[in-house]
Amino acid sequence: MQRPGFARLVDRLETGDVLIVTKLDRLGRNAMGVRATVEMLANEGVRVHCLALGGVDLTSPAGKMIMAVITAVAEFERDLLIERTQAGLSRAKAEGKKLRRRPALTPDQQAEVRRKRAEGHSLGALAKLYGVSRAAIQRAEKRAG
Question: Average pLDDT in the 122-145 region?
Fold first, then answer.
């Protein structure tokens, strides 16, 4: 519903209408979002058919079952991803690796930034010169202090 075009479409739908989508991803960013959208439309009396699933009506009992299976599989995949990420982070920490973002500027560039700031160069000019954000220039200054 955050997409203006989709919101306008939903506003025009009336009880008894059928919304036909080519793929489920047209209804939301993830399985939970798709499910919420289908339920919201069903509550307004709008049926939703998905061509990629053989034109099944997602608001029918069979369609609801398909949505439940798809949602369950998506949640399972998400949980596995989180589990693997956490295991990888734990292993890296155990190996003594530092988990942080690489600095936007090299140590030599940071020294140049500090020198140029002392000479009066502006944050914006330096950020543009080095192709980084103003915050990166400010962090380079703070690291000296």
Answer: 88
Per-residue buried b or exposed e for 62-91, using 16+ beta carbons within 10 Å of the residue's own CB: ebbebbeebbeeeeeeeeeeeeeeeeeeee
What's the mean pLDDT in 28-45?
87
CB 131 within 8 A of CB 140: no
Mean pLDDT, all residues of the chain: 89
Q: How far is CA 56 from the centre of its chain?
A: 28
The 10 Å Cβ neighbour count of residue 140 is: 23
Report residue 28 CA to chain centroid gap.
12
**Ramachandran category for residue 21: left, alpha or beta (phi over 0 → left; psi -120 to 50 → alpha):** beta
Q: pTM for the whole thing?
A: 0.53
Q: Report the Cα 74 to chain-centroid distance in Å.
A: 15
> CA 21 → CA 8, 28, 29, 50, distances in Å?
15, 11, 14, 5
Task: Write out pLDDT tens, residues 9-28.
Answer: 999 999 999 999 998 888 88
Contact by Cβ (8 Å): 9, 44: no
